[in-house]
TrEMBL record:
Source organism of this protein record: Lotharella globosa
F-box domain ranges (all copies): 21-67
Top-level taxonomic group: Eukaryota
Protein name: F-box domain-containing protein
PROSITE patterns: FBOX
Length: 264
């Protein structure tokens, strides 16, 4: 049982806490909304339990509009003109978009590679589970390569692309043949691509590397990967190659968005 002195101390601390809450509640809601607009979604969620005033300010639709239209860090462009009758719901659906994804390459479509070193090393290999790979022809270190994949729907939203560079364990030194960088493009025909990402650096490591597009919303029928630069020469001919063991494309066909009413 606490002593009288301890009880008085606890009562004083409780009053101080109550005083703090009263102080927070006295902040004009418009000021809170402006301050909250600079926070991340995670930070904003953590503040909701501070006070009722904070919770009410966090329901402001203008705040969620600002969060939805905010340009992701490191990106040069973003869909800043998204419109919705409920921006909080739209933001939540955007956040969930990456979680509800599927493999969206149409394996029956005509795949394209700008070069192939041998017919047994075709681009179709990167979509298969068996341990095989695609290889470009040998070239100088700066020569790019282009890969094109058809997607499963006439309009498919793509949320991420992953690739795994190939390690040639049968060659001296077990070299890895990654590209130095990659650019992702989407379009509705094989000849016209309406959106392109920034250039993503690729590490020369034989592990799966994932490059996220979400929460940006971009879609199309065809996906183009531009592989830029080369790390590794082949000992036999001293030419540079790009070899990939696996490519994965995740997203969702437009029809799936019927479950996301504000996003659709």
């Amino acid at each position: 049982r606490p002593s009288r002195h301890q009880s008085q101390t606890m009562e004083t601390e409780d009053q101080a806490r109550l005083g703090d809450v009263t102080a927070w509640d006295s902040i004009p809601r418009a000021v809170l909304v402006k301050c909250f607009s600079f926070l991340t979604h995670k930070e904003l969620t953590q503040l909701l339990t501070v006070s009722r005033n904070f919770s009410l300010a966090a329901e402001n639709d203008g705040l969620w509009k600002a969060l939805t239209r905010r340009k992701p860090e490191g990106e040069s462009s973003y869909f800043s003109d998204l419109r919705s009758p409920n921006y909080k719901k739209l933001y939540q659906e955007l956040a969930c978009l990456r979680l509800h994804t599927y493999r969206v390459v149409d394996q029956q479509s005509d795949l394209y590679a700008s070069s192939t070193d041998h017919k047994s090393q075709s681009i179709a290999n990167v979509l298969r589970a068996n341990p095989s790979f695609w290889s470009s022809k040998g070239a100088d270190a700066e020569k790019p390569e282009t890969l094109i994949f058809g997607l499963v729907s006439p309009v498919t939203i793509v949320t991420s692309v992953s690739l795994k560079p190939y390690r040639a364990a049968y060659q001296w030194g077990q070299p890895i043949y990654a590209p130095r960088a990659m650019r992702i493009s989407l379009g509705y025909t094989r000849d016209e691509f309406v959106w392109s990402s920034d250039v993503f650096p690729v590490l020369n490591e034989d592990r799966e590397q994932t490059f996220h597009i979400a929460p940006r919303i971009v879609g199309g029928k065809f996906l183009r990967l531009e592989l830029l630069g080369r790390y590794q020469t082949q000992r036999e001919d001293d030419l540079y190659y790009i070899c990939l063991e696996k490519i994965g494309v995740k997203g969702c066909p437009l029809g799936v968005l019927k479950e996301q009413p504000y996003l659709s």
